[in-house]
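Table S2 (text version). Query chain:
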Amino acid sequence: MGEILQNDILLVKSIIKKVLDADEYEAVERLGGLTNHTYHVTIKDGKEYVIRLPGEGTQKLINRQNERISTSLPVSLRLMQGFCILGRMAQRFLNIYRMLLQCQLKLCMRNSILSRWH
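Corresponding structure-token output:
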């Protein structure tokens, strides 16, 4: 969907190692997102994850401490593998994710000021 950013690859590798306890990935695909850099990552054992890296300036829009608190339930239910600092996270990949992302983008375009520009 989008271009893989070289700086992001270093962060993705770090999250794979620290959070997912894996050394390498098999495939990486950029999924897009309005404010974050989101990647679909397949690690060597075939398991798939979504890795989210915060986009530039998102700390002004999102209270990451509140977000961390709100994600504690999915982490405890193992829906989310772990939550890293500064808005970085890893969670299991669900095939419905692509469809939800596309719907979210369309909804935002329709209902926001962005629709005036596009």
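Notes on Table S2: Strands lie at 25-32, 36-43, 48-54, 80-83, 89-92. Residues 96-111 form the longest helix (16 residues).
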